[in-house]
Amino acid sequence: MPQSSERDDAPSTGSLDPLERLVVDVFVDGVKVLGLPRSIGEIYGLLFISPVPLALDDLVERLDISKGSASQGLRALKGLGAVREVELNGGRRTYFEPAVELKRLVGGFIREQVRPHIESGKQKIGKLAEVAAREQDPERREFLEERIERLDNWLRRGGVMLPLIQRLLGQ
To answer: PANTHER family per the record (predicted)?
Structure first.
């Protein structure tokens, strides 16, 4: 299989034309920034540029990825609301198409990735405050309490901003 001439770290591709490869690379770069697996960007990118819905086997073959990676990637993308299942001609195969509405993509990312981190962060800050309160050195305790308060403010502000962002996007 040919190697991508665009990047040395790119895996070989099954049957992507140059335009498809470029679009897939755009989404791979995007998911890297978000800390998501490369296969999620590859799958979404190919679905995004495909004029027709694709089945799991199509994604495996065209992207030259394992069935497990494709299945896991589709599951994650469905959880984010970034892809949806469609039926074609009453067949037994499940096909997928991308959700292309920005509000849906951002809303899904906030719901599935950001909110859980904010919630777990709140719990961790409570534990940090308990530990800091037991600090014997008054200077260190004051320093720790100031930093914990700063973290708490960041999380509260993030919690306030998320609904505003979702409203802005029409969620």
So the answer is: HTH-TYPE TRANSCRIPTIONAL REGULATOR MJ1563-RELATED
Q: What is the dihedral of CA 28, 30, 36, 39, to 10 degrees?
A: -20
The CA distances from residue 59 to 23, 97, 148, 156, in Å, are: 15, 11, 46, 40
**Six token digits for residue 64:** 């030259």
Q: Which CATH class is domain 18-98?
A: mainly alpha
pTM of this structure? 0.68
What is the residue extent of each domain of the chain?
18-98, 102-168
Residue 148 to residue 33: CA distance in whole angstroms = 27
Q: Roughly what angle, to the nearest 10 degrees, separates helices 67-79 and 56-63?
A: 120
Question: What are 72-98's pLDDT values in tens digits?
Answer: 999 999 988 899 999 887 778 899 999
